[in-house]
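Good morning C.,

I know you're traveling, so I'll keep this short. The sequence:
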Amino acid sequence: MKLFVENEKIELKKSTSELKQAITSIVAILNKHGHGELYFGIKNDGTLSGQEVSDKTLRSISQSFSNHIKPQIFPIVTKEIEKGLDFIKVIFRGNDAPYFAYGRPYIRVADEDKLLTPAELENMILQKNIYQSKWDSKITEFKLSEADDRTIQKFIEQTKQSGRTPVHNDNSEVVLTKLSLIKSDMLSYAAWHLFCDDQPVELQLAVFRGRDKSGFADIRISKGNLFYLLETAESYIKDKINWRVEFLEDMKRHEIPEIPVSAFREAIVNSLVHRNFNDPKGNEIAIFTDRIEIYNPGTFPEGLTPEDYIKGRERSYLRNPKIAEIFYYTRDIDRWGSGLQRMNKECTENGIHLCFDIMTNGFLTTFYRPVDVLDIKVSDDEGGIKGGTKGGMKGGMKGGIKDSTKSIVLSGDLMQLPNRQKDVLLLIAKNNRISISEASKQLGIVRSVAQKHFDALTSKGIIGRIGHKRGGYWKILVSLKKVLL
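The tokens, ready to paste straight into the viewer:
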């Protein structure tokens, strides 16, 4: 009877006569994955052979684990019965790698245990120090007076609104002291990165003309405190992506981004909170015609994958615990490591393909855009949107913008128009023979104000009047993607 198959997290042993090898396997699995299972009484091929099990046997196994695995772990060792045969199940977990068996470190490779090389052991110890040193709570040479008080006050207000505030006070020094962000007027590293504008942390932002970096349409570099960088990155993406504006029967404007704001904002927060602040490389926001990439320096926790978090199997493993704590108070992150899970759910529900890539010295989140960035044009006198899609999606959007049309895609530049001018443009898109009087009634504004909005759109070269005042119609004159405001 076949019960299990050996893999990187499961080890099978025929009997406790292989206890020494079992201890080596447990250490190898812990160093690779941090948790796993081991069975005595099951052959390598997964068939049940049985094992004599007594209370003394279980105690002896537990004692051997305690004596020969360092740092010490506390596995669950139980007697199991299947088809009248006894066997032993061992469930183990640990987050204090590297682990040693009989004084030697091992790593799991497929279903085999490999002795760690000195370089691999050194890297594992380095990763441990990064995640457990709590470096961001250490005190710097920077004083409280060097922090931006407006940013601190905004943080205090956000914590009140979030309902997570641990300190009920408006005094910056009092709040930061109680949050262990300052000591004797000196800032911790977390406070320095969170509240000081003079920062080495850099955010690189760019829009590329195609699907690679051979040519760019816009490039910027920003420096500042983490709250400023978060706001800058979010605004940049909002400004550069496409939005669908739905103008429904209730006469209300609904602006819908091609990628959910909550999803890419979560990715930005993660990239800032979990970055390696000892790495001089900057965070990156790269917008291509087919995707948006959000990168941060700093490797993923050793032995874990994004899939572990998407499936809810792992708890948050923090490189910068104090910085993460502060963003928790503002409700920008969740303490339980569910950020990747929420992003995946949001994108799945909205038909967005989302990818996570663990890189050599960083982490990359990629949102694939629904279609390539297009120049959406009204191409004939009666109006109409015609846009072909590129890449892996087929078809295209073709539709006359007449009474039956309720939405139009607006580009980043066009989204900067005042809301009422957007409304006027959408009314024209829906009915290019609409009068200014009728538009004023539908928008609930006086005719003279509606006239000003029509005139503004005309002066910007966005719309024009074709034909006579009574018998003519409005025409959208430009590529909506290339409007210059």
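Safe travels,
E.
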